[in-house]
Design brief:
Elements: E1 3-4, E2 10-11, H1 14-27, E3 36-37, H2 39-46, H3 50-62, E4 66-69, E5 73-76, H4 81-105, H5 108-127, H6 131-149, H7 152-160, H8 163-175, H9 184-192, H10 197-221
Antiparallel strand pairs: 1-2, 3-5, 4-5
Pfam families: FCD, GntR
Keywords: DNA-binding, Transcription, Transcription regulation
GO molecular function: DNA-binding transcription factor activity; sequence-specific DNA binding
Length: about 230
């Protein structure tokens, strides 16, 4: 967990900095799928000792960004179509359940916080901000919804499906399409919080698959075959 210094700046440990740098390089494609990541080489590249790199790599593996192969070591996760479909199926199960719970259980304070974050996210999307910035806010939005249910297993579930990588690539694929809705996430949260679990589940499922289909299409058409 990050701490805040006296002047308000966020303090990061060496391991947190290493995680942030490596994860960004993976998502941007600088570290390509299947690439072997050697701890000592990463330590030299990032200018830190191998210990923070080891801590960062453990977290990267937990988040699904890298995987361990026997007799080979750690590699960047290879996003096959089948694997991505599996990720989305798990995400659908988790987030649709989150939506059903929030429909009737969200407090007024939680509703205000979710609505404010949804509005901020829609503004960034409409203004054409950087994909990375949108992705981070998008993750905060969905994780906050899970947090509002009070069930830690739902939050942990999102982390297990490589959520950061999944949303980053889904945002990229979705932004390449025209007709981005101006109040996409505001409308989503308004419908989820409308006291109707069935409606909440449906709108969440529609929201997930709106980015799923472009992402799968892009992956199938990619010139890079994994």
């Amino acid at each position: 967990m990050q701490s805040v210094t006296q002047n308000g700046a966020v303090f990061q440990t060496a391991a947190e900095k290493a995680y942030e740098i490596i994860s960004k390089k993976i998502m941007k494609g600088e570290y390509e799928p299947g690439m072997r990541l050697v701890r000592r080489q990463l330590a030299q590249e990032l200018g830190v000792s191998p210990i923070p790199i080891l801590e960062a790599m453990k977290r990267l593996e937990q988040d699904g960004l890298i995987e361990y192969k026997a007799h080979w070591g750690s590699i960047v996760t290879i996003p096959t179509v089948e694997r991505v479909m599996d990720m989305f199926a798990f995400r659908e199960a988790i987030e649709c359940q989150v939506a059903r719970i929030l429909a009737t259980k969200a407090t007024e304070e939680q509703k205000k916080a979710l609505h404010a974050l949804a509005e901020e996210l829609d503004i960034l999307r409409f203004e054409g901000s950087e994909t990375e910035k949108i992705t981070q806010l998008h993750i905060r939005f969905h994780v906050m919804m899970a947090e509002c249910t009070g069930f830690s297993s739902l939050i942990a579930g999102l982390q297990k499906i490589n959520f950061t990588w999944l949303l980053f690539n889904a945002v990229q694929s979705r932004r390449a399409r025209p007709a981005i809705q101006r109040y996409w996430h505001v409308t989503l949260i308004d419908n989820i919080l409308d006291q109707d679990p069935e409606k909440a589940e449906k709108v969440m499922r529609d929201h997930i698959y709106d980015s799923y289909y472009p992402f799968i299409e892009d992956l199938k058409n990619s010139s890079i075959k994994y």
